[in-house]
Amino acid sequence: MYSLRLVVVQMQLLMVANATAHELALHKPGCPNKCGELDIPYPFGTKDGCFLSEEFFITCNNTHDDPPKPFWVHSNIPVTNINMGGRLQIQTLVSTACYNETASMIKNRSRNTSLMVGKSTISDTQNKFTVIGCDSYGYIRGKIGDKNYREGCISWCGNPDDVIEGSCSGSGCCQIDIPKGLKEIKVQARSINNHTDVWKFNPCSYAFVIEDSQFRFSSSNLSNMTERVPTAVDWAITGQGNCEKARRNKTSYACKQNSECYEPPANNSVRGYLCRCKDGYEGNPYLSCRDIDECKNRNNTCSKHADCDNIEGNYTCKCHKGYNGDGRKDGDGCMPNQSSTVITYKIVVGVGLSFVILLVFTSWFYFMFKKRRLIKLKEFFFQQNGGILLQQQLSKQSGSCDTTKIFGEKELKKATNNFDEKRIIGRGGFGTVYKGFLDDNNTVAIKKSKIVDKSQIEQFINEVTILLQINHRNVVKLLGCCLETEVPLLVYEYVTNGTLFDHIHKKDNTPTIPWETRLRIAAETAGVLSYLHSAAATPIIHRDVKSTNILLDDDFIAKVSDFGASKLVPMDETQLTTMVQGTLGYLDPEYLQNSKLTEKSDVYSFGVVLVELMTGKKVVSFARPEEERNLVKYFLFLLNEGCLFEILENGMVNDDNSEQIREVAELARRCLRVKGEERPTMKEVAMELEGLRRMHNVEENIE
């Protein structure tokens, strides 16, 4: 009898131990908890009865692979991580298009790049659509609900030295965000010129959707890219609505004992709900959560004169005999019941006062040291950025001190509310522009550069002083600069009416600006470029002429801006050899091919702006048919075919201006010639545009 009782007790203890193990397990009893090296927590599972619904079925391929590999049932591609906070990491295929030295395609992997995730969504906050290659573009297609989505980006470079390690800004690598709510996608990589000029170091174009935190671009990616990349998928318990609706259906409600329901966080785009253990509990909220013994694992705040007492979902602290209080380190703690002696109080007070005095003195010394160090750092930046040289040159210019200023960092921080993102009015390849309000109530635009070349500070100072001397009504005036920061800050006059790009690319079908105003803006812009090329003390090539760099005031007067990429041309030189910089679509093809920058490069870019003004269309757009994506090529084709008016903006042409528009189109054709030597100078362009305006005004007066 005694032996039988002993066996019963042992079996009961074993049952308790098994129950405890089941409470702590992240998978259902009797279900595999791993596939290879990957933990499979419920609601996910690898066989019938082990997962909540088909959305959470993981197949475990243990036939051919050693170790076994998990695959998600929706995409049939590998799973590498399951996060109980609503995140799934899978391995998706890279779309690849490779060419040989004869420009023939030898590899095209795009058919298997489709991805469908069922009721889950492809994370828009964790992933980026990425294209790699020096002669490449790629696009991503998908569906958001019943709507089709399509977008793409272009990656370009002339040689491996052009790319910047870790940067995906368009040179060798480009990235764009993906929208919220994508449930299926297909990516495709393509080449612009079949990798003809870059085949030796970059034979392939690559396109893929990748978890941003798992990718850093390297020049080695140009010749060697993995077959699969990690992609983040958002999941939740779907089909039952939010928490409030899900709780009403007791049979299908997924949150189990001692757990609670919560809505997916903002970075999870799935509609549904998730579960988590309540405070003081641990385990799998989709199975059960058990009480955490804070006293056993010492995860408590009981003071040294108190004992910890574990209770369901929490714990209490009980002071030892002779002490009273709540017993917590973060509360009153435990104080002795008997009163202390006067000597004890004096010692405590004395030690406390000494500590306070020491703390005050140490803090004062630290803040004084920090303030002095900050002053020294500002002085260092001021000298490093050529502040002394700039002051000397300004003092030599008569009247400069009345119109220009060297600003302090504190003044510009105050003007922009410490460079608040809400004050940003523009971003470019060379910096960010903020709207600022000075103490004298003047509104200014403050440009904060991204990078400054420390080896060319003297050239930078010389360029600033020349820009300060420019007194042209159609150039955004440079008011001054700040040299107390690591990179100089430039302060410009604030132009109120946005950019030319904003006005000519509005989505309605009527001209946003009448033709006469557009022609005047073109003439004013050409006059500025002519001035920079031929009238400035040292000729200046703007290098980034485009509609976003032409600002308009309330009267639609043009103001040319952004000289961040401009180059000074010594008097004895007609061209400069530089690394290619500029904006795709506006770049001079001759400059793009041989890296030799001339004044005719600005002429080509201005010709593109003329085409924009006449057509109202964006220079490059993947939303248009393939033959129309490059605006310049399509414009020249129609012009050669005698079909100019087919591409012009609706409602612009009338009987009075049709001939004038033809002449401007012919001028644009000459500006867009491939060989720079065959293009007119900016002075000739400005004179011709001004002549067309005057002739039109004379004809109107005669009528």
UniProtKB/TrEMBL annotation:
Residues 1-21 form the signal peptide. The keyword Transferase applies. It comes from Acer saccharum (Sugar maple). GO terms for molecular function: ATP binding; calcium ion binding; polysaccharide binding; protein serine/threonine kinase activity. The keyword S-adenosyl-L-methionine does not apply. Serine/threonine-protein kinase that may function as a signaling receptor of extracellular matrix component. Binding to pectin may have significance in the control of cell expansion, morphogenesis and development. GO terms for cellular component: plasma membrane. It is a single-pass type I membrane protein. This is Uncharacterized protein.
